[in-house]
Sequence to fold (405 residues):
Amino acid sequence: MLNTFSVLSPHLKFKNKFVSIDNVAFKFHYRATFTILLVCTLLVTSRQYIGEHIRCITGGSIPEHVINTFCFFTTTFTVVRHFNESMLQDGSIPHPGVGHIYTDDPVKYHAYYQWVPFVLFLQAIMFYGPHYVWRNMEGGRIKRLVDGLRMVEISKFYKRSNAVTFDSKYTLYPKAELDKKIEIACDAFYKHIIINHLWAWKHVLCEMMNLINVLAQVWFTNKFLGGRFYRLGLDFIEEDFSGRMDVLDTIFPKVTKCHFHKYGPSGTIQQHDALCVMALNVINEKIFTFLWFWYAIIIIITMSALIWRLITLTYHGRSERFNGYVFSSVCPGMLNSHDLNFITENLTFSDWLFLYYLGKNMDRQLFRALFRGIVLKLDKSRQSGKSSKLQDDDPEAASLIIEKL
Fold:
C-alpha cells in the first residue's frame, strides 16, 4: 500500500515554508483537502485492493470480459421495491435492490461509479484554486520583504567586520552596519504598506472563494449521487447496521443488474440479464461518507475564519485593546500602548493586515524594531502636513529598497 501512495510523494512535499501568506483555514483547503482528494482518487483507480471494479455473470454465451466492460461503461440498475429489509430476511430476494422486475417497476440506474476518479480529481483542483489565485494576487510582496529581513536577523550573529555574499543572492553584514540595514528595512516596509491598499481585500475575496467553493462541491456531489449526499452523514449516524441492508446499500449498491442485448441466430434481439458485483462501491461508500464529515468540518472552519475576518475589519481601527490582543500572538508583550494606539488610529485595514502577516513571518525583536520604526515614520509624515492615511506611491520603490538589503 505504501508503494501505491508513494506515487503522490513527489507532488505532495508541502515544505514548512518560511513565509506564510494565508491562515489556517486556507491551509485546510489547499493542503489537507487537496491531499485527501488525491489519495481518494488513487484508491478508486487501484485494482490491487478490490480486484476488478465490476464482475458480471450471465446465463448466456457472452464472454465475461465483454459483459464486464459493457456494464461498467454503460449503466447498471437496481429495483426500488427490492430495497426491503424484510424481503431480505425471509429470503425473497438475494441482495438489496436485486430481484424479479415487472414492466411497471421503478428502477434506479447507476452510472456515477465510472466518473468517480474524474470527479475527485477535479474537486482536488478546485480546492487548490483559491490559493493559486491568492498567491498570484499577492505577488510575493511579503516574501520579498521577509527574505531581506531574514538576512538582517541572521546578521546579528555574524562576528566579522566585512560583508559576505553567498548563493549570489544573500548578504551577511557586520554588526556595525546592522542598524543601518534595519532602517533600510523599515523604509522597505513603509513603501510596501503604501502601495497595497487592495492587498487585504484580495485576501478576503479569496477567503470567500474558499467558502463558495466548498459549498459548490457539496452541491455538486449531491447532484452527482442522485440527491443523496446532503443527508448521507446524518443517515450514517442514525443507522444501526444490525440488519442485512443499510443506508449505504441504497446509495452504493454492492450487487446490481444489467441488461445486454444482442442478435440471436435468426436475427431477433435477445436480452441477457446479468448480475454484477460492484466491488468499487466498497471503496466509494467509505470515501463519500468520510467526505461528508470532512466537508462539514471545512465549512465550519471556513465560516469561522470569515467571522474572524469580519471582526478584524470592524475593530482594527476602533480598539487599541483588540490590536494588543491580535499583535500579542506575533510579538507578545513587546509593543507599547502608544504604538498600538497610533496603529489603531492611522492604518487602513489593508495596511493593518499586511503588518500582521509580516509580524507572523519575522523574529519578534526585529518586528518590534520595525513596528516602532514604521510608527515613527508615519507620525513624522503626519506632523509634516501629509495625510495620516497612506497614499499611493511608486510600486517599484519597495523592490529597489529590498535589493539594498
Remarks:
- The CA atoms of residues 151 and 384 lie 33 Å apart.
- Strands lie at 55-58, 76-79, 107-110, 164-166, 170-172, 255-263, 269-277.
